[in-house]
Amino acid sequence: MCGIVGILGKKAVAGDLVDALRRLEYRGYDSAGVATVEDGHLDRRRAEGKLKNLEIRLSNHPLQGRTGLGHTRWATHGKPVERNAHPHMNERVAVVHNGIIENFQELRGELSAKGHVFQTETDTETVLHLVSDYLDQGVAPVDAARAALQRLQGAFALAVIFAGEDNLMIGARQGPPLAIGHGEGEMYLGSDAIALAPFTDTITYLEDGDCAVLTREAAEIFAFDGRKVERPAIKSVASSLLVDKGNFRHFMAKEIHEQPEVISHTLGSFIDFAEGRVHLPDLGLDPAEISKISISACGTAYYAGIVGKYWLERYARVPVEIDVASEFRYREPPLEKGGLSVFITQSGETADTLATLRYCKAQGQRIASIVNVRTSTIARESDVILPTLAGPEIGVASTKAFTCQLSVLACLAIALGRARGAISEAQEKELTHALAEVPRHVSTLLHNEATYERLAHDLSKARDVLYLGRGSSFPLALEGALKLKEISYIHAEGYAAGELKHGPIALIDENVPVIVVAPADELFEKTVSNMQEVAARGGKIILLSDAAAERAGCALEAHIPVPTVHPFVNPLLYAVPVQLIAYHTAVFLGTDVDQPRNLAKSVTVE
Ligand code: F6R
């Protein structure tokens, strides 16, 4: 969360800082700001809300400095108001920060006792005062920054500039990502390579514990204690093109509609359709010897992982443990040496997922990551990556990344199933054939939008919505509820259909829509019983199913037909109606679909 950028340029940098921030806005949009060194003095412009507010402010009150920092904020400490917006600045120092300084209260107390007066509620302001305090003691800027870094605990990416220093910038990483961009007589810092792509493709990724001392001519990297370290400069493949919405009203709509293509690319990168075989990269261990797979992820990626568990257990006959990364990392589960740990992430930067990866690595696990951003920290720290070819996902609510994650997990289940002798060659052909049909069926599902618009009209009046599913449709119920709540702000919960009578049934009345994800598979009749329990209590049922509406055996508020396919691939198809229900409800309610309140695309804090 939060995007940071820094430029040591040849001309005024405010425009380029804003340009880079536009590419980082997915990391947060509570406020934005830039600060530059102009004639030796620091000056800044900040604005609450989206970047366009900062642009207006800058056009009315331009900044001319050639050395500057920019920041787009996802609030952690302190309200999302201008006072708390970065850069934080006094007469001597300006700082931007992504992450959380965990010992900020202790430092704030110590610095206040020394006479420092705090203007904001942020943890970041302690960094400003700490660096200033060392400067006040006569310590030179680079050493002051380094001394401050040694006092900080927590997770942070930081960039610092100083009054009177037109050719100096400090960058530091302990957790969230930070990259140096090398230009011709210019130097850059950014939270990711995409932010810097219009300026340079020569990138150095900082590692945890690195402090970079940048001038226009050189980038030197040190450990926080001052030891020099070497990090390679590499050619980045990040594209500077800001993906546009095409003819769609929102990125989310465009991304939902891209699914036939990106699922097809992703499947095609692992499956030889002519042979009916899955080819995975070498996992570096013998699949037959895997005694357990542990999967960790967050949010939507976690729900993809639950589908993966159903598939891996059923088709590869391997036990799978799955947990949200934020719990996994602190549970410290014992992991047998030589096991496989799988991480699922669109951004490749999610703090909890990364911390869990490091835990598993330290336990001797082989690390495989299903990741969309190949230049990300998680991609770089994995033994093997299984890429999703979803392309850039801009809408904050994940859609195409989810179905691409499912595509990779399906391939993993088939490949492991074959290698472990759990499925035959003929079954492998049958399953890959079923996957080959998915893009076509997903296309069909996208041609029914009028139905969702009608449904949105009714759902928008609901205060609570329940989603039910069984087997591999259970995670789809969870994903449906997450999608609805995050973009429409309607309270929604997903339940395993069989759990209904163990509590949630108390919520059912005629005002609670119940969306049932129920393909006509071996579990359909069981779910029918649950639907009848809902109907008996006046609940309004919206059925997503390939089964005819009459088979529900009760009155339906709506029936969304889904094509009949091999049950293995059902989750890939049912993802689409749950996305469209959420999307159209949010559009009907007029919320900010692509940048819903309080959220960010890349969650780099715990
Ligand atoms: C929901 C959503 C989030 C992410 C989660 C993990 O629509 O997008 O729940 O899935 O924050 O993010 P990644 O996949 O980047 O690790």
What's a quick, concise take on this entry?
This protein is an alpha/beta fold and 606 residues long.
Low-confidence stretches: none
The CATH superfamily name of the largest domain is Aminohydrolase, N-terminal nucleophile (Ntn) domain
Shape: globular
Structural class: alpha/beta
| Average pLDDT level | 93
Give the helix level as a range of percent: 25-40%
Beta-strand level of the residues, as a percent range?
15-25%
Provide the number of structural domains.
Answer: 3
Bound molecules: fructose -6-phosphate
Q: Note the main sheet.
A: 8 strands, antiparallel
User: What spatial order of strands do you see in the largest sheet?
Assistant: 3-2-4-1-10-9-11-15
CATH topology of the largest domain: Glutamine Phosphoribosylpyrophosphate, subunit 1, domain 1
Structure in words:
By secondary structure, the protein is α/β, with parallel strands linked by helices. It has three domains: 3-245, Aminohydrolase, N-terminal nucleophile (Ntn) domain (Glutamine Phosphoribosylpyrophosphate, subunit 1, domain 1), CATH 3.60.20.10; 253-436, Rossmann fold; 447-589, 3-Layer(aba) Sandwich (Rossmann fold), CATH 3.40.50.10490. The protein is built from 19 helices and 27 strands. The strands form five sheets. An eight-stranded antiparallel sheet has the order 3-2-4-1-10-9-11-15. Helix 1 packs antiparallel against helix 2 (51-60), helix 9 (299-315) packs antiparallel against helix 17 and helix 17 packs parallel to helix 19. The N and C termini lie close together (10 Å). The relative contact order is 0.09. The mean pLDDT is 93. Fructose -6-phosphate binds at residues 298-301, 345-347, 350, 353, 397-398, 482, 486, 602-603.
